[in-house]
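Practice problem: predict the structure.
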Amino acid sequence: MSDFDINQFKIKLEPFYEAQSNEVELYTTAYNAKLPVMVKGPTGCGKSRFIEHMAYKLDKPIITVSCNEDITASDLIGRFLLDANGTRWVDGPLTLAARHGAICYLDEIVEARQDTMVVIHSLTDHRRELMLDKKGELVKAHPDFQLVISYNPGYQSLMKDLKQSTKQRFTGMDFDYANAELEASIVVKESGVDANIATKLVKLAHATRNLVGHGLDEGASTRLLNYAGTLIASGVGVKDACNMALVCPITDDAEIRTTMSGAIDAIFD
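Answer:
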């Protein structure tokens, strides 16, 4: 693996990210101090975009793993595979990042089984090491390695949450949707619609977020606003774009859909 090029995981073009507070400075300090970071916030509020932005800003490679309930420790660490010459060891994404010095980003970590996540513990304390039991190798983390995890606290439950033994190995950063003015400017930048349309889209998003707990699990995210703006900028009618991007994806409830359609009519008429 000595000839492995970790730089293939570097982000070539700067991801757009508009800071809401001092999160850039906080993350940079945590990275320089070799501290693991946990980012928490609702769906589509910019958590992943922020981590990609920081990887670009720091000029570090980033390996992203989208966690799910079927992911195993071997999927993260690595395994022996058969080939024409017998068996060979293949590093998993966590091992690659630790060995070669990348940011390993475990997205929506609560979707993974808790027993799988135990493998990250030795990389998130003073040891900064990873034991490859099947290979009999102890990997000492590269100085540039950092572990970052994210999840949506709104989906926590007794059965789907991180253990305290995992949580307390990370520094934490809370994310939320930007204020209305900033969110509108993000929609303008990301989708290409004018400021007037973007402001109205954000107003509609706030209306849906007010329905959380009253028929909706979550309101429209900034990501969905960008989708709606992109459709509008591409020539789709405003109401069709809003229905396609902001209503259909988040609810199947006929009554809630009627309420949201009324809000669309009121805001854009």
